[in-house]
Design goal:
With about 170 residues, this protein is of the alpha+beta class. The chain folds into two domains: about 55 residues, no CATH class; about 80 residues, Sandwich (Immunoglobulin-like), CATH 2.60.40. It is about 30% helix and about 30% strand. The strands form two sheets. A four-stranded antiparallel beta sheet has the order 3-2-5-6, with no helix packed on it. The termini are far apart.
Length: about 170
């Protein structure tokens, strides 16, 4: 039965590190401890370099793609002159886009959570939260609506004037 590692180590340490040998089962191969250290060091170096090269040549993760389609909610027509802002979840602007003639805007992004704000002077702004996944295209349809028009507050003033006129 071959000697155990602990037996070899104990024997090597008792002889001194420079004169240590590792006996084999048949006693045919003697290797000094310093040669063993050299071999282990070289193997560790080669493995370290191989690991670094593997990490260096690994393909970069694919980006996600956001596709925003902007339309008028009432007519369904595209709104090519809208402004599309892509923000982080903390409202920091990543980029600002303009849709093309067909109302679409595309932008590659890292995986994560984003907020998309679409605005136009003739419409009320719209905000959408989106979660993008790596290597996937996410399409959002944004329908802009005209702002609600408030009637001016002239009715109470007219009724007060009419009341005063008839109640003299």
């Amino acid at each position: 039965m071959p000697p155990s590692f602990h037996m070899i180590l104990r024997e090597s340490l008792s002889r001194g590190l420079d004169n240590a040998t590792t006996p084999t089962e048949k006693g045919g191969l003697n290797m000094s401890f310093s040669k063993l250290q050299t071999f282990v060091g070289l193997a560790a170096g080669i493995l370290s370099i191989a690991g670094a090269l593997a990490a260096f040549f690994r393909p970069a993760p694919q980006k996600a793609e956001l596709v925003a389609i902007v339309q008028d909610a009432k007519t369904g027509k595209t709104v090519p002159d809208a402004t599309i802002e892509i923000l982080t979840s903390r409202d920091a602007i990543v980029t600002t886009l303009k849709p093309n003639g067909s109302g679409k805007a595309r932008y590659p992004l890292d995986e994560g959570h984003y907020r998309v704000r679409v605005s136009h002077p003739r419409y009320s702004p719209e905000v959408r939260d989106v979660q993008l996944m790596s290597s996937q295209s996410t399409e959002i349809h944004v329908q802009l609506r005209a702002p609600a028009i408030r009637a001016p507050a002239i009715a109470p003033a007219i009724s007060d004037s009419v009341r005063r006129l008839f109640h003299r």
